[in-house]
Write a structure and sequence with these properties.
The protein is mostly helical and 144 residues long. It contains 7 helices and no strands.
Length: 144
Amino acid sequence: MLGAAALIRRCAASGFRAAVRRPAGPAAVLQARCYSHGSQESDEEFDARWVTYFNKPDIDAWELRKGINTLVGYDLVPEPKIIDAALRACRRLNDFASAVRILEVVKDKAGPHKEIYPYVIQELRPTLSELGISTPEELGLDKA
C-alpha cells in the first residue's frame, strides 16, 4: 500500500487515474449489464395485477395510497378499469378525498393530451354515479 505522501506525489505527477493500482496482466473485460432479468409483463398482465391489488377486500388506507403513488410513478395513464378498482377501494374505505385525488392525478398524468381525461371520465361515469363520487370539475376544484 502506498503511503499518503507517495500517493499525493503520484497523483500530482500523473493524475488520479495513475494513483489507482491496476492488476498486471490482460486488460479488464468489459461487462454487459442486463437490467431486466425477468420476462416482460404484458399490458393485460399489468392491468390485471393492479386491479387485483385494489380489489383486495382487506386493503387499508396506507396500501391504497402506496398503490396509487406507485402507479403514478409509472410513465403512463392508468386504464379506466384500474382506476375503477381504485375508486371502489376508496369507497370501501369511505375515503372520498382519495377518490377525488385519484381523478386529479389522472388528469395531471394525461398532461397535454387533452383527449385522454374526458375519455377516462366517460368510461368511469357509471362507476362514479354508482359510488356517488363527483369529479374535480363538478366540485369546482379545476378553477383553483
